[in-house]
Amino acid sequence: MTLLIIADDLSGAADCAIAFAGAGMSTVVTLDASHDTGDASVVAIDTDTRRLSADAAGQRTLSAWQVLRRPRQHLYKKIDSTLRGNWAAEVAALQPQAGLAIVAPAFPATGRTTLEGRVLVNGQPLETTDTWKLEHAERSADIASMLEGEGLRTAKLNLELLRGDSIALVRHIAEIAGSGVEALIVDAQTTADLHILASVTLQMTEALALFWVGSGGLAREIAALSEQVAVPAQAPEKFAPTLVLVGSLSSVSERQCALLKERSGIGELIVPPAVLRHGMAHADWAGWEMRIGQCLRRGEDLLLRIGRDDAFDPAEGARLSTLLAALVRPHFAHVGGLVATGGETARAMLGAVGIGSLQLLCEIEAGVAFGRPIASRDGHRPGVVTKAGAFGTDHALYAAWLHMNNAVAPVESSAGLVTNPALQGKNHE
User: Fold this and answer.
1) Does a structural domain hold residue 398?
2) Which residue stretches of the chain have pLDDT < 70?
3) Is the pTM of this model over 0.85?
4) Overall domain count for the chain
């Protein structure tokens, strides 16, 4: 099986593609369609379209598919499970050439489900969540309305049909495609629902032009059905400090950072947004660059974050991430492992140091991918973990830090937390 995954941000590309790496398939994530992806069976591209206009996002998405597509290759349009970005416009751009869009954003393992064509987050309507309110205010989160707003004819596949007779399900999907419907919205409340969808639609790809539109949830079920001889997970070779770079300001990231600090004792620097907004022109820029460099040169693991102030605007995320990466860039050669939270943050850091593609190696927890650069501008290839900002368990950053340090988690005793023997005497060369 060969597959092209098109995502609108880097962490999304990685968390979707990592399932295929875990299934034993050669898997590469790239930041640009022009980068060499070798003979990888699965290629995931970050088109970096989340902040573009809908028209520009659609055009860039279609261009990526046209450049990277291969004969008999399947297409997976990775979208955010909470419907952020220009996903509907991107699906509309692909559909005339790619066929029926099978739209299933559910990721039950992370609390995202779909019922009656609407996304629920831990059982609550998406519109009521802080993530949606932060970026979309009063906009509707109805999947059909979003797709129809881009000119697509839609239909819905409910749970009764999905869980019913498989032959009847195949017939129903074929009839839907033959009726002129361009996007089929599929309800899913469990991983088993997504497994049924993956199994049925994979069987139909020989006879029907279709592509998948979903989060990492559906991708995992497709990967499981395509599994090859798995490659053993690789622990990183690390002889220098771990840099945990957090650009996301979500409450999820806040909890993850708090647990990481509590469990690891990692040092923390929080860069004020005002410094980043003004860049090198700010009086404190050089001081912040020096502090970051001093930590890394001493071999100290570092949690580096973007602060928040009253002037905060979600739209400035990409610019702040780019300037945060600029602060780190002069000292990146001292980084032994990078953990980047937030797709914009990960892309900015890798782009700043000339890393264009990652060979994905293993998954630390659902949606938290570990890989290694295929090449870099100066030859430095540290281990890299990527994770979406408002994603993962509270332990996600700590688990990534443990992986980079080749350690295991501390154990609990009746007296409380016991020091992890694997971390005693840990030093950075």
Assistant:
1) yes
2) 137, 228-239, 314, 408-429
3) no
4) 2
